[in-house]
Amino acid sequence: MKLAIYAFLALTLSLVGCNASTPSKPDTPLTHTEKTLVKQLTQTGRELYKKDSRASFASDLVQAQMDVSLYPNFVGWITHPNNEDYTVSFYQRTRGVGQEGDNYEVFADVVFDKNMAAKLYPEPKRTLDELELAMLKARITALTANIDRCNQPYNTVVLPDEANGQLHVYLLAASTQYGVMQVGGHHKVTINIASGEITQVTPFSKSCFALNLTDSSRPKDSKLSMVVVSHIVSDYPAAIHPYLNLLHDLSIAISTKSGIWVAENGELRLMER
Q1: Is-contact 233 22, C-beta < 8 A?
Q2: Are 14 and 222 in contact (CB under 8 A)?
Q3: Signal sequence: where (predicted)?
């Protein structure tokens, strides 16, 4: 059966307008623990995509409408919730006269409303709240982590886990080439909120593997409907997989020790044990 499934998945790469009609239920149903894990991974992957996509749009907006050269001490951005959607804030490092250590100030806020319309507020003259400051410092710290980096630039998404006193900083390897899915090179850096120290680094792959989604060897009238990847650093898929699925609007079959999973429409489901 597994050989047939693999053959089917390979075939979907070249069929014209193929809709991947994979089995709706696995031979063995998910356990309660697996259901909980899948729900968590799906929610995290969706949030990664929401925050990363808004940060990308906001960065373009700030660069188009502001003279960013006026802020040479730029240290990054944070995407955080507002009353309707998310706000992407951009920061610079400052140090007042007689002060020790670094201070930070917001030089731009890009506020998204419930319709995902974005409005830029240059130099909003507001004070960072406690969690916002912790998230910014966590981002700065995570970028110093000792990880196997790819040559690609890295985007960051910070997800708070206040219940456990942690901040999870996702380092997302970004491809600079059109039509390339950067499958490998992503990491999660966990930071203790109280101490600001790194407590764990979690790699999501063992290489910088990337997939060319515009392979010229495919027939010209074909449509790519699914790609197949292997995931060997954990027994189950990672939040990276629904994130990549949404980022590229492309279904992903993930071969893991626990079975073959599919990331589709931002959801994870088991296809076969």
Answers
A1: no
A2: yes
A3: 1-20
Q: What tokens appear for 109 in the block?
A: 């806020």
Residue 3 lies in a domain: no
Query: What is the rounded CA–CA span in Å between residue 153 and residue 76?
Result: 13
Number of domains comprising the chain: 1
Distance, in Å, from the CA atom of 201 to the CA atom of 114, rounded to the nearest integer, reads 34
- Supply φ then ψ for residue 196, to 5 degrees: 75, 10
Whether residue 59 lies inside any domain: the answer is: yes
How does pLDDT run across 9-53, given as a tens digit for each residue?
A: 443 433 333 444 454 566 679 999 999 999 999 999 999 999 999
In a domain, 166, yes or no: yes
Secondary structure (3-state) at 253 = strand
Instruction: Decide if 255 contacts 272 (C-beta within 8 A).
Output: no
> By residue range, what is the domain housing residue 53?
16-272
The whole-angstrom distance between residue 81's C-alpha and the CA centroid of its chain comes to 16
Whether 9 is covered by a domain: the verdict is no
Look at residue 217 and give its three-state secondary structure.
coil
Cα–Cα distance for residue pair 53/35, rounded to 1 Å: 27
pLDDT value, residue 24:
54
Interacting residues of 245 by C-beta distance below 8 A, sequence separation 6+: 45, 251, 252, 263, 264, 265, 266
- Alpha-carbon gap, residue 128 to 82, rounded angstroms: 14
Question: pLDDT, tens digit, for every residue of 217-264?
Answer: 677 777 888 999 999 999 999 999 999 999 999 999 999 999 999 999
Q: What is each CA distance from 146 to 46, 140, 149, 170, 189, in whole angstroms?
A: 27, 13, 9, 14, 10
